Structures are given as structure tokens and as C-alpha cells.
Amino acid sequence: MKLSVIEKLTQIAFVGIILLLCTMPFFALSSYIQPQYDDFSVWAVLDKFNFFEAQVSWYTSWTGRYTAHALMSIFHPIVYRNVEMMGLVAVVIQIAFLSSSYFFLSRVMPKDTSVLKKAILFCSFLVLFYWQLPSPAEAFYWIPATFSYQLGLMLNILFFAIFWTEDINSNPKSKILLSILAALIPGTCEIALLIFLSILFATLFLRLINRKKISRTELIISALALGFSLFSLFSPGNTNRSSVMHEITGAQPGNIVFTIKSALLIIKGQLLPLLLKSPFLIVSMVFLWIVSGLNFKNETNIKPIAILGYLFAWLGLYFILHLPFIYKAGILYMPGRVLNLTQFIFIAGWLGFLSICIAFFKVKRAESPFLGLSFFGITVMYIGLQLILPNKIQSAFRDWMSGNAAAYEQAMEERFNLFEASENKDLVVAPIKNIPYTIFIADLTSNPEEDRNRLVSNYFKLKSVRADSSLLIP
């Protein structure tokens, strides 16, 4: 067998292994998820109001995330008291994320890039993102988070995949699709909105410098983006939600010095594990190896100032994304759903930077089947060894294969059966033990008056419910 064939088989093996690692356990866990906390809140609002009244209620009393809440009102299974379908929603979300990410990558790479090379580049990004994913539960399984943050991220990916690669002035379909996306993205969440406006106006600024003008279509899309962003941000509900955050004991909302220091500490806590406890460097080398073999246009002429501008925009956006929540809440904490998006921006920005460097230095590696075979073989072995260290892929496999997720599902079903049979009663239940944190958000508390407890009580028509750890069997 020729060495070049063996090299190709090794590359296929790399793609296959990464896809299995990054999809199999997460898809499998979808069948075990259960409704939690804000899931019951969605039901409570829609049990009280019709679809349109619910949107007005959320916008005026809680949040400007009109896209997220409108879609949850239609697609959240709890609205129809059919929680068994939540697993299907989780699978759809994961497929949508994988598809949108691959679509973006296939659009921005040279058109003659082979499917195998695209797959390798895609898998390089995938393993970096999933390895230390801050909160898989909030990325794929908890619908109130996925329909806000993860959906906002996916819509951003689709928007810029088209905006950067299409001649939208001569393509009516793209123009309409971008206009719809410009209206939808601001209504997902504030972080997605910030990502959207930052990248959109940075792109327009660069086009203005290069072309000395901005097209009418681009101006219309920008106006739509800005208008719907203002509509979301100036929601009366945002003020109410911020006031709840300010009630946290010891919080320092509005303290910019505290906000910056806290953001830097959180960034350090996120980047160190990514850089030191994941195959970040060797996978980056794989990405470089493939990109250096692509046929970028010869006329590509990137100036050093453009690279500096890219670094400033990428790292600046990454840093700024950490500020809004800390500034509003005034605490040294970032929700996992926000960190999921910031980590995506860091990794995508890093891989984009590597690609720009390859184009700038016009690096063109010589084809060497022996080096390619050795490189991919070493990478696969290294990733296998790195799996020994704690990471989110390993956690997903453990929750699935150990039976933790299955035991959690059974315990929750038994609890819900008890609730169904205990209408108008005061109930005390044991907390969930052996929690599968990959799919878990929050359990009931010992205080029956807390929001999550009251929401569950309302859903099951209980008088009250609380958790008591003394009921746990030793």
C-alpha cells in the first residue's frame, strides 16, 4: 500500500475518532435530560397567557429576548406537558450547531478545498471547543439557555458565513435571509447581540476602508440590526431583571474596577485549562498543517496593520464579552452559558489568526506523505493520552457509561410520578444523588418559597415542595 494512501487513511481515522468523541456521548445523553427550574417558568407563563400575551409579559416584565421566548413558546415540549420530547430538542440543537459550524468553515475556506481537508479543519475546531466546554448542560440540554445563548451563537455563525462570502447586492435570497437574521439575533441574548454588532460594524469599517463606500444593502441590514438591538436592550423587563441581580448580598454592581479585575480572573481560569489541559497546541498544529496546503488566492495581500487590527478586534471582543454580566451583577462569577460563547470566540478567533498568518507569510508546505502520516498518527495518540486528564468529553462519557444519567432519569421520573399523585399536598423529597453534571442544572432547595420550588409546585398542583438531605439513604 502506498504511503500516500496510508496518510489519507490516517486522516480519515483522525476525523472519525474526533467526531465519535465529540458527538456520541453528547447525543446519547440527550435521552436522559429532565425539565429543571426555568423550564417550569416557561410553562407557568404560557399556562397563564396565550402566545402573544406571553411575549408582551416577558418583554415588559423580564427580558428583551423576544426571539428566544417566541421560539420556546412554540417548541419547548413542556408547553404541551410532553417532557419526553426534550431529548429530541437537544439532539436538534446539537445537529444545528455542528451543521452551522461546518457551513461557516466550508464557506470561508478556498472553494477547491477537499471534503476531507474541510472535515479535518472542522474536527480540529470541534475537539478544542468540546474538550473544555464550560457548560455542556447550558449549551445543549437546558432549553431556556440553548434557545437564548447557543441559538444566538448559531444565528451569528450563519449570518457571517453568508455576509462574508456572498455578493448580497446581487443575491436577493441572501439579502432577505440576512435581513431576517439581523432581526432575530438581537432577540436571543445580550451576549449574542454584542458579538453580532461588534463583528458587523468591524466588517463594515474594513469594507469602508478598502472600498471607500458601503452599499445600500449593507446599510439597510445594519439599520435593521441596530434597530432590533435597541428594541431588545430597552425592554422594560431588562430593568426588572437587573434589579433582581442587585439584591445579591455583597454584590458590587456598577463597579468598573471590580468588573475588570473579575473579568481578568475569570479569563485566566478559563484559558489555563484550555491551553494546558487540552490538546490545544498539537491540534492547532494540525490546523496549520492543513491550512498551509490550501490554495489561497495569489493576490491575497494582507498588511501587518491588518493583522494587528485583527488581534485587537478579536481579543478586545473576547475580553468585553466578560464585562456585562459582572458589571450588572457585581459578583465574581460568570454563568456557563456565557462562558460557552466566550470560549467559542476565543477558539474561532485563534484559528482565524492562524489562517491569516499562513496567508500573510504565504506559507506553502510541500506534500510529504511520511510527515503527514507521522503527524496525524502522533496527534491521535496524544489526544488519546490527554483523555486521561479531566475534561468535558471524558465527563460526558462517564455520565453516560457509568449509569449516572440513567439513574438520574429514573430518580426524576419517580419524583414526578409522586408529584402527579400528590395534588394539593406538602411534599418533602430527597435531593438527587450521583448527579450527572453534563446534563444537570439545579435541584430543588430546602426552602419551599424559593422560585424553583414554587414553579414545580405550580406545575404539579402541589401545595408546596422542598428537598431535605436527611432523607438521603446512606
List the helices and strands and how they pair.
Elements: H1 3-29, H2 38-48, H3 51-61, H4 66-75, H5 86-108, H6 115-131, H7 136-141, H8 143-163, H9 172-184, H10 190-211, H11 216-233, H12 236-245, H13 256-276, H14 280-291, H15 304-320, H16 323-329, H17 336-361, H18 369-386, H19 392-401, H20 404-420, E1 426-429, H21 451-460, E2 464-467
Care to describe what's here?
The chain is built from 21 helices and two strands. With 474 residues, the protein is mostly helical. It has helices at residues 3-29, 38-48, 51-61, 66-75, 86-108, 115-131, 136-141, 143-163, 172-184, 190-211, 216-233, 236-245, 256-276, 280-291, 304-320, 323-329, 336-361, 369-386, 392-401, 404-420, 451-460; strands spanning 426-429, 464-467. Helix 1 (3-29) crosses helix 19. The longest helix is centred in the first third of the chain and has 27 residues, at 3-29. The chain is 69% helix and 2% strand. The protein has a two-stranded parallel ribbon.
Q: Can you describe this structure in just a few lines?
A:
This protein is 69% helix and 2% strand. The chain has 474 residues and is an all-alpha fold. Helix 1 (3-29) crosses helix 19 (392-401).
- The end-to-end distance, rounded to whole angstroms, is 60 Å
Strand order of the largest sheet: 1-2
- Give the H and E element order: HHHHHHHHHHHHHHHHHHHHEHE
What low-confidence regions span 5 or more consecutive residues with pLDDT below 50?
Answer: none
Number of DSSP strands? 2
| Helical stretch tally | 21
Largest sheet: 2 strands, parallel
Helix content: 55-70%
Let me know the average pLDDT: 91
Label the structural class: mainly alpha
Radius of gyration: 24 Å
β-sheet strand percentage: under 5%
Shape: globular
